[in-house]
Amino acid sequence: MGSAKGKADLRKSALMKSAVGIFCGAFVFANVSFDSAHAGEGDRQNASSSFEACGPAGQWIDPATGKAVPPEAALLQAASGAIVLLGESHTSKEDHLWQTHTLAGLFAHNPDIIVGFEAFPRDTQSVLDRWAAGDLLEDAFLKEVRWNDVWGYDADYYLPLFNFARQNRLGMKAINVGRSLVSTVGREGWENVGEKDRQGIGTPAPASETYRKALAEVFSSKLSHGIGRVAVEGGEAENEEPKVEDILTRTEFNNFVDAQLVWDRAMAEALFDASEKNPGVLVVGILGRGHVENGFGVPHQLESLGAEKVVSLLPITVADDCRTIETSIADLVFLVDDRETEPNRPQRPRLGVFIEPASDGGVLLSRVTDGSIAEAADLRSGDVVLKAAGEDLSSTADLVEIIQRQAPGTWLPLEIERDGEIQTLVAKFPSASDTK
Q: C-alpha angle 10/371/17, rounded to 5°?
């Protein structure tokens, strides 16, 4: 345990969960003083030491020492900050429960809170204001923020957070930007996006070399899974993972880094703006853990903006085995159970694809996951789904809604366009007996 490879794999896995959205769009995962906990960006990103995070769950841990921190001390430290970042794996119920409970604990120390959400682009701010004021019911709220189209993860995981904010009349802030900006930067690079198309986002602080190398591992893995093509000696080849050092100078990789930085910068600017305009208010960010870990993402951008007293908190899943955790991962971590699924909870149907709007209509499959229903149906990356169950698709939300209506054991006909030809494929959703 604690090997260099193990630590690299953990970092790569977390970054992949965060950065995959740039390629693929929506998916159809003892007290420390501020002086020591907030070392400079270079110190944090170059740290290489680690500790063993072991159960039981329910403990706050100081990564700098590997020692348990009493809950009251942990929450007091966090509430003494100006901006608190609560990271998550988007598909983990346990992470979202931890966020809700932590938000409640922070509220007990400082009831003046603004909660910023990665899940919402800025054009939904008026809807968040109406919800926080108690003027919308849940179904209307989710419809008006275009939940399935914009975010698409299980709303049931997020609703406790939304309801806590509404019930206590906390300010809610949409801190994300439209996916179109991130996608455009990913294709063309930040410098090639005109000022009027930048959605008011400033130029991000450059990524450290450590962050670039970590993102290069993600980029390499994505290429090897068929998203994009890999240049190799003697011609082009797919499904071959290139070396990290061969990726760092590629234009498409630099655009990929730009897109990640713009994503981080947009959220950092929104959180910083809320903090600056509301002295004494605690600003809490609810966002993916890949934007928080090791100070690479949003903390780095906040530091460049001049933010002080930024506290990063993360949940760490523990099971029977210990987890090797880098001491630089966050200011404090909380150990949660390994409970990704519940046996008695009906699971929402999953086709097993990453999707985004197609340029000429329909839904583009950016990636088909291994072992999925989609793979069994011979769906492939690059296919454009035009119809599902005989219904035309005008948005990603249309496909998500149809998939979620599928009962176990049913068949879903899909009309797709592949290489200029129209085909019909059928996806079979397994019955309860098939999964036993």
A: 30
**Residue 405: DSSP 8-state:** T
> Per mean pLDDT, which range of 60-64, 380-384, 389-393, 398-402 is the poorest?
398-402
Instruction: Name the packing angle between helices 93-109 and 155-167 (round to 10°).
Output: 10
Q: What is the pTM of this model?
A: 0.73
Let me know: does 327 contact 50? Beta carbons within 8 Å: yes
In terms of Cβ atoms closer than 10 Å to its own Cβ (0-12, 13-18, 19+), residue 1 is: exposed
DSSP state, 313? E
155-174 burial: b if 16+ Cβ within 10 Å, else e: bebbbbbbebbbeeebbbbb
Element (DSSP H or E) covering residue 184: helix 179-188
Q: What angle do CA 31, 305, 43 make, to 5 degrees?
A: 50
DSSP 323-390: EEEETTS-SEEEEEE--S--TTSPPPP---EEEEE-TTSSEEEEEE-TTSHHHHTT--TT-EEEEETT
| CA–CA gap between residue 248 and residue 265 (Å, rounded) | 21
Greatest Cα pair distance, the chain, in angstroms, is 63
How many other C-beta atoms lie within 10 A of the C-beta of residue 187? 13
Residue 166 structure tokens: 């509404």
Mean pLDDT of 125-139: 97
For residue 406, what pLDDT band results from cuts at 50, 70 and 90? Answer: confident
Does residue 78 have a pLDDT over 60?
yes
Pairing of strands 171-176, 332-337: unpaired
Q: Rounded CA gap, 307 and 10, in Å? A: 28
- Average pLDDT of the chain to the nearest whole number: 82
Helix H, strand E, coil C: the string for 140-154 is HHHHHCCHHHHCCCC
DSSP-assigned letter for residue 29: -
* Residues paired with residue 421 on neighbouring β-strands, in sequence order: 418
Strands annotated E in 208-331: 230-232, 235-237, 282-288, 310-318, 323-326
